[in-house]
Amino acid sequence: MIKKLLFGIGMMFVCTHSLFALQENDISSSMRSHIDLATSILRNTQLAKQERSGKIFAIFDSVFDYTLMAKLSIGAKQWDTLVPEKQREFTKLFEMRLKNSYMEKLDLYTDEKIVIKNLEKIKDTRIHLTTHLMKNGEVYEIIYKFYKTANANEWMIYDVDILGVSIIQTYRTQFAEILAKEPFERLLERLKEPEPTNTKAPQ
Amino acid sequence: MRLLLLTCFFTLSLLWATNPTPQQANEDVETEFVDKTGEALFDPLEGYNRFMTDVNDHFYEYILRPTAQGYAYLVPESARKGLSNAFDNLFFPIRFVNNLLQFKWGNAFEETERFVLNSTMGILGFRDVAGEELHIYAHDEDFGQTLGAYGVGSGFHIVLPIFGPSNARDLVGLAGDYWLNPLTYIEARDANLVDNTAESVAITAFYMVNRTSLHVNEYDSLKKDAIELYPFLRDIYESRRNKLISE
Fold first, then answer.
1. pTM here?
2. Per-residue pLDDT tens for B186-211?
3. What residue ranges in chain A does DSSP mark as E strands?
4. Hey, of B118, B225, B230, B240, which one would you mutate to test binding to chain A, going by the most A CBs within 10 A of its CB?
């Protein structure tokens, strides 16, 4: 009985895994359907905001490599000095930060249309997927940056460029500046704060 | 049994050998990002810039936003949108000249089409006829972008009072745009839309309030993404400008 159950769970894991993991050929089509699904969830105003974002994260969680994003944002050098437990704590806080920021944006969402413009293979292990978000006749360019994972032939997102601004780069600069003046523990605390605080300029 | 163990061991070691560790791939990704801190970052005005970022933030929080919100309460959105269109139409010379300076002939021509259509059929630019009906859209270019397109580097970052983030190159660009901007008053210039500097300041202030009223939530939501406001806004400004120049 237990064996059967374990097998079932194992199969479920395998299935869901392969259901969401992206292969090179279906990045465009999968992202297309992910975005369409997300859009329809967003338009469903009968759902509470919390519910909507929960459903959307369920779609995108398998495509975003939050651990790598966290590592890139703090820099490999700093990352390597942290014990695994701190790495996990930081990753969790960073992921929450990204998601909260996304949820804030949901409130601004009205009737934008998102189209996939272009898929470009930068090199063997990188793909940039360019999408256009249309709002009030203006076009906003959003680029999803994928890398090929080393052990499986899957593609995951490690950064998003919005209007030419790399999300990871903005965090990277901020974290570096904060860590130049404050201990790591303080950075963890600040990640939990909803509003930005400013450290004093060096005198 | 021993054979099985041996095979297991063998395949495992083979796996280790052939599989590049994820670590390697990650370090590879890392090179795509830059470290702009400490010595590497040229930010001689950092102290002043941080101070001015705070001042601007407070100015926005306590003066500009409340004013814009009060104004938005009194004036319907369609009217504010119309005014915003009319202002954009007035800035035609800036876009036209800078498109020409960057040899973007097609864009300069479209800008002219827009100006002619919107000034007439769009009634002084209040309605964006060209964009709405004919899908001819504006091509924003300014002197800072022109200089960038010519290969001028951004120089040091500087936060301007009220106007916000800028840099040495764009500061020079602003002087060029100032000359082409119909809302400014320059005695040496042949044509002036306004009669004196006081009028120019008043109409520019009105333009800012009107524009802010249409974008109130955007700055607020952007600000929430920041952990440390100054480097956050600096990064966004510089990346965005680089992107605009490359286009």
1. 0.81
2. 888 888 888 889 999 999 999 999 99
3. 113-123, 126-135, 138-148, 155-162, 165-166
4. B225
